Amino acid sequence: MRISLNINNYIRDIEIEAGDVLYDALNKLGFTSVRKSCDTGSCGACTVLVDGKPVPSCSYLAVRAEGKNITTIEGVKSEAERFNNFILDEGAAQCGYCNPGFILTVLAMRDEVINPTEEDIKNYMVGNLCRCTGYVGHLRAIKKYLEAIK
Q1: What confidence tens digit (pLDDT) does each residue in 71-89 have?
Q2: Residue 13 burial by CB count (10 A; 0-12/13-18/19+): exposed, middle or buried?
Q3: Which one in 61, 63, 88, 100 has a CA-CA gap of 20 to 30 Å to 27?
């Protein structure tokens, strides 16, 4: 079946199979920043925003995304780079594999949760795993970023 996807404010047509997930469609269209790791929707590496909400693209059917706004890291490049500098300053990045999904989740939280507490941040970020570092540096980076954008 042929569907149209609005990705980073550009309409892209793609031929998909009935069971294709959004990750596969984005990958076919050349969005290599969307990473696949667990294939179960629990690690966050494949996270994209659908209508501003973080979703695991490895378990979200592509056909469900038709008519919705999909945002990948390429669609928020300058803000992603700004937040990534906080991650780097806090020593919270090693391999960077999880960064695109992690950053998109933080940007969604920024827009959804007003003045989040540390507990709010931890709860919102629960679906994003980093296999290289602990989360203390990530938490510091998020707090400093949110403080800087106030």
Answers
A1: 999 999 999 999 999 999 9
A2: exposed
A3: 88
